[in-house]
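Check this:
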Amino acid sequence: MFLYVYLSIMIKNLRITVLLLLTAVVAGLVSATVIEKFKGHEFVTDYIYGSFWMIALWALLSLFGFIMIVCCRLYRRKAAVGIHLSFLVILCGALLTHFTSHSGVMSLRLGETSNLMICADNTTELLPFNVRLDTFVVKYYGGTDTPQDYVSGISFLRFPDKVDDRDTVSMNKVVNYDNYRFFQTSYSPDMQECMLSVSYDPYGMTVSYVGYGCLVLCMMFFFFDRNSMFRKSLRKIRRLTMFFLLFLPFASFAEPLKSPSGPVADKFGEVLVLYQGRICPVNTLALDFCRKLYNGKSYKGHSANQVLCGWMFYPMEWRSEIKLDVSSSKDKQKLLLIESLFNGDLLKMYPVAVDGAPVRWVGRSSSLPESISVEEWTFIRKVQNYLQQFVMLGQDAEAIELIGNIKRYQDKKTAGAVPHVSEIKAELLYNSLTHTKLVAIICLVIGFLCFVCSTVYMARGSREPRWQKRLERILVAALSLYLFTLFVLRWVVLGSIPLSNGYEAMEFMALLVSLLVIAVARFSPLVLPAGFLVTGFCLLVALFGESDPPITPLMPVLSSPLLSVHVVTIMLSYALMAIMFVISLSAIIVTHNRKCPVPLSSVETEADGVQSSVLPEVADRLTTLNSLLLTPSVFLLAVGIFVGAVWANVSWGSYWQWDPKETWALITLLVYSLPLHKFSKLGDQPMRFNFYLVVAFLCVLVTYFGVNYFLGGMHSYA
């Protein structure tokens, strides 16, 4: 009886009930990510994610959500019903996975057979078949010892001596046999043993995939629903105008300091070297060397190439340009860097291969094979000394010729096992164009000035001159072209889409924001200032860890096309949310600082003989723009999570592991989905809607920064 009364009260207050349940679920997920930092992943998995009360909360939320669909007659809107039912299917799949799946690790040595799996709780399980490791191969990036992939050839045996099936397991290639999925995990130092992760999930994964697929399809149909928030906002949008900008001049002053001439240093910068696990031009090493010592790409008018060569050929003079404190950890790293340059370990420019062995890159002081010729030995040991003499005597022509000999030696010994000349040129061009800090400052200055000007113009109800609008569009187009060029060049150099670390992700987000600004700038005069501000902040955030980190070979687990789709959709969603955040702030500021005595409308006024139109209601128009952007941002985030789940399932055999970033991505999706529901009534009042979007953006900040720099997990860039 009590339960019946309680349920009746909850149904009568359906809106409040759903909001409270959603808040409870989000609070539980948030607390789990924080507790995991101190108690570990297994603890929160057992006591929060997989607990009875969390499962009950999800069940109640699903139940009352279904009741709301019936009571609010949402069944008339097929797309909306489909979206909610898709979430229900996903939750059912997750529940099946929780109760029916299990996983573990198998250790196999070459030629040996086993069916023993060690589970996560340190218990053992016998598989209904045997597995034998036939082959194990580690593939490397050309000319380096950096692993590119791990490949295990395995056989499945139903009977002791009868092979039922054979297949190969590698990174991002999972083998499925009898509903058991095998994927590559690690291997022993002697390369005679490999560890395979094993997962068994015959029902939950399929059901969840069906739910994800239905969700994506229904969200696509949602864009065509005439009664959806997206279509209503699209009909209300009108063309607005906007702003201007300016530039900051920068100057540098240099003091005389000995270094090779520019042509000699630049020629030396084209020589190949083994650095950060890959073959790259010396110029890349020089830039990293200069940044670590002097926090910039140049020093006192000397380029990075000249700085590196100056330390090589004029060490006594350049030593006076830096003061090191041995008690400081940063200064200790600088000292080690300088020492590695002097002892030859930093400049591994000489490829050596004897007796058919793989090419090994060495420095001038490295140990050399005894079987190499005397001429080759002399060249490796003495060529830098000769180069130093030519530089100190000012014989630039002889120095350039000697550098050419080094390059010809490299070409002869590597026989094409190095990056193509076009890739080298692309990397040199990329190095010369990368000015992230300067571009970030310019974007922030432009965005701030434009934001102030646009706010003043809109509060007064006036329009800006055409030349200003044209200048604004030219500037944002130039910014987009610049960022796109850097993105493509880094892609060419890396050989895969550059989205593997925090710097690359934030630069890509800056590119997406600039492109989005071009697409939606005509809808509101505050879009361009918002775009410049968000782009500038993205570029500054990219510099938090380190300024343009060296390009390194991609980890084998990241060598998947699903990574590209996953990161692109997620970052595009975050870019839209960042733009909505700035627009919401603008709407709040305009509303509270509006000086017009009468509501702004489309009424025509005449001043000084010139006809001008007063702008429409600013806050309402900005709110409409946010309503328009909200739907695609939620859609892209959902797609990104789905693709990420598929990628995780392919890479390590589990489509969802309640990793902190996975959890916070889900929280962000739930928070941003709430305004799309009419029962929330957030769209009824513009200010309430804008305040909500400002607060909601905290979820995006925690998802990216909180996880990366505090909560940790598998997705952490820090």
